[in-house]
Amino acid sequence: MLLILNVRIYGQEQVLYQPESLEFSNISVDSALQIIENQTGLHFTFNSDLLRTTRNVNAHFQKVPLCIILDSLFANPNLNYQIIECQLVVYEQSKIPPTNTIKIDSIGTASVQISFGGEIRDAESGETLPFAAISVQNSILGTISNEDGIFSLQIRNSVASDSILISYLGYQTLKIVLKDIPKYQVYQLESTSISLQEVIIRSLYPERLIRLAISNKKKNYPNHSFVQRAFYREAVKRDKKYMLYSEGILDVLKRPYRPSLFNEQVKLVKQRSYKSIEREDTVQIKLYGGIQTSLDLDVVKHSFSFINLESMDDYVYSMRDMVINDEKLTYKIEFKPKNTKQAFAYEGYIYLDVESLAFVKLDFKYTKFSLQKMRNAFVIRRSPRLRIIPQDAHYTVTYKEFEGLYYIHHIQGELILKVKRRRKFLSSKYSASFEMVATELNGTAPRRFSSDQTIKKNDIFSDLSPDYDLNFWGNENFLLPESDLMKAFERLSLEK
After folding, report:
1. Domain 15-92 adopts which CATH fold?
2. Helix (H, G, I), strand (E, B) or coil at 33
């Protein structure tokens, strides 16, 4: 089980985020809205058809963000709120689309025109660059390279006249016109250096930059619902041997980045699994809630402690470097807990875009002290004869900019455990990992998925076919398996 513990607290960033305290009993929704008007000084503007209930309501809100109070009263996940002067406008997203609606084909409707792939390497050393971003310039259609630096991408004809961008943190972005791109090629990226004039900016206090980035969340991230198509995979290994590997294509209905009462939804499009668990394996680690954990790791949306105004004082921040990300200057800020004995604390790096002060990447892990306190929290079942010691719990989250807004792009997590058996000298090393990468974005205003389409995000990813065939995914974009994975699949085929 790969666990993320997080207390969600929202700061007073704008009126809709402002915590309010309200009490009323057995009154109409319209009367409740009148109480809110009197308390906030705002005046509601909305179509009366949006009030779906005529029943009386009771409520006891203590310091709850105003937008969540409105969610509970209107009970409609498709509504958005906007403040214009003293008017609080309530509108249905499907009726008034946001200004930044993405103009690309609806998911799964366009035919594939171009398919290509390659390897991404450092131009000087020749080393592979894992998890490099490959995208179409004028859309959020793309993928990432795997741990071996290898990728494949299929492009729909709606963007066939565009250019491909290959980017990696600290490297110059490579731009290639799509019509000139070969079927397969090794792409070499040049590392970039920062001039002295730019480095002088380091005199800014990093805490101040983080606070400014938090206040800019409402303008840097989407405040409307949208759907992402994503590739998801999870794996469990014992001493470098794969015990379990599952992967799938998902449609994820993402909620606005403002506080919301409504949960995100996930629809399973395709899925496959590989399993090779031997009888002597007395430790069975399964990624319980791996998909939910991936959604929870949208760090900006869920205000993790190290980027939360109420808990920032628990951390110390230091400016470490300035790097290039997607051709833009980016601050690299290190953070650590002030109290080394603080439980459930993180340490790592925050990357901020210099111009927009948007969070573009967060690379973090639990502190060693936190891991010691959580040693029994990661495994679903274990034998009493085993001693399980968490070694590392590491997470990486990246966001990609499109038309002035930043969307969640890549989420990755890995847990490493040391397992010792009683009266045994040698120990085993187990690792459990998960990864989700957004491959396509539909910016239209979606309705909720029906209950028969959605999967329970806390479920263990179920098993389907044990065979691995690259043609299984058809026209979908997916992460190519690494070389060690392919060897594991080949061994399984030989054992049949």
Report:
1. Phage tail protein beta-alpha-beta fold (3.55.50)
2. helix
